[in-house]
């Protein structure tokens, strides 16, 4: 099992995603002899998981069932233990696209946090790219190192426990892209520029408050960055569902006589007008709003 390579069978030591329902997934470390409790009953790893194909439907001890899925960055984002506020798929998709990431890219990131974005970056830059990620909090840095090893992507990432605003990323002139998710990103802009390659590159800063964005944009301009722009991504999901529509009654056919229409019309026609069942989309009553501002900039070639 690896987050960047697909495996067919569940093996001892894998991290599997147990799909309990539409909005309920959990990550499970598969171990011989272990058990996992769910609301549908017990999952016994030795008999129910190990050796089964990913995507299998597993019956629990109470008769309920779950699906066991191969881990992906998207599933990890909704299943991971939150050590910090994380980025979700909507913003992650915009970040990876606007930073122009691809296999072989070298990326600098701060802070690592819970590793939600980190896993998406690693899947995008594999198999020859590298991620240099910086986390200020020592325990969070140690935990994410363990997770990268468990997920078998540790060969693609270097984790540093340091203050990026004071000590930088620990590398110079290597990064194709830089991502900042820290309280004062304007203090790290100089280190970000130093970490980027001479031929230029892209930078993204995620901030929840517009005051942070203003100071970051000013720092980017002072450091010579170009194409500075800020945006926020708002997702509106439409639900697809069947609806029944009553067809309007326009009266008798104008081309037929009134007597003929009266004879042919069934007695219940007036009481039960015709209806049509179709599938349509309906917008949500409430839409999730602001998550954060994404500020992008380009380092010019030097």
TrEMBL record:
Keywords: Acetylation, Methyltransferase, Nucleus, S-adenosyl-L-methionine, Transferase, tRNA processing. PROSITE patterns: SAM_TRM61 (PS51620). InterPro entries: SAM-dependent_MTases_sf (IPR029063), TRM61_C (IPR049470), tRNA_MeTrfase_Gcd14 (IPR014816). Its EC number is 2.1.1.220. One of its GO terms (molecular function) is tRNA (adenine(58)-N1)-methyltransferase activity. GO terms for biological process: tRNA methylation. It is an enzyme of class 2 (transferase). S-adenosyl-L-methionine binds at residues 114-117, 135, 163, 181. It holds the Pfam family GCD14. Residues 251-302 are annotated as: Disordered. Belongs to the class I-like SAM-binding methyltransferase superfamily. TRM61 family. Heterotetramer; composed of two copies of TRMT6 and two copies of TRMT61A. Catalytic subunit of tRNA (adenine-N(1)-)-methyltransferase, which catalyzes the formation of N(1)-methyladenine at position 58 (m1A58) in initiator methionyl-tRNA. Catalytic subunit of mRNA N(1)-methyltransferase complex, which mediates methylation of adenosine residues at the N(1) position of a small subset of mRNAs: N(1) methylation takes place in tRNA T-loop-like structures of mRNAs and is only present at low stoichiometries. This is tRNA (adenine(58)-N(1))-methyltransferase catalytic subunit TRMT61A. It comes from Poecilia mexicana.
């Amino acid at each position: 099992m690896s987050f960047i390579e697909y495996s067919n069978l569940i093996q001892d030591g894998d991290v599997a995603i147990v799909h309990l329902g539409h909005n309920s997934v959990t990550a499970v470390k598969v171990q011989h002899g272990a058990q996992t409790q769910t609301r549908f009953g017990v999952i016994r790893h030795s008999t129910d998981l190990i050796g089964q194909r990913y995507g299998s439907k597993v019956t629990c001890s109470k008769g309920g069932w779950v699906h066991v899925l191969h881990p992906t960055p998207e599933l990890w984002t909704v299943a991971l233990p939150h050590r910090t506020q994380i980025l979700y798929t909507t913003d992650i998709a915009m970040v990876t696209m606007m930073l122009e990431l691809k296999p072989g890219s070298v990326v600098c990131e701060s802070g690592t946090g819970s590793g939600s974005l980190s896993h998406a970056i690693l899947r995008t830059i594999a198999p020859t790219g590298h991620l240099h990620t910086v986390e200020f909090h020592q325990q969070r840095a140690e935990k994410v190192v363990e997770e990268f090893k468990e997920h078998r992507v540790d060969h693609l990432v270097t984790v540093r426990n340091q203050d990026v605003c004071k000590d930088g990323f620990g590398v110079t002139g290597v990064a194709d892209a830089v991502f900042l998710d820290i309280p004062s990103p304007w203090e790290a802009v100089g280190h970000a520029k130093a970490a980027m390659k001479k031929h230029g590159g892209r930078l993204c800063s995620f901030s929840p408050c517009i005051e942070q964005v203003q100071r970051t944009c000013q720092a980017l301009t002072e450091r010579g960055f170009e194409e500075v722009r800020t945006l926020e991504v708002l997702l509106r999901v439409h639900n697809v569902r069947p609806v029944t529509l009553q067809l309007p009654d326009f009266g008798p056919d104008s081309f037929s006589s009134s007597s003929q229409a009266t004879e042919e019309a069934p007695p219940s026609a007036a009481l039960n007008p015709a209806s049509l069942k179709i599938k349509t989309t309906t917008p949500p009553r409430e839409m999730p709003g602001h998550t954060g501002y994404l500020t992008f900039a380009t380092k010019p070639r030097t």
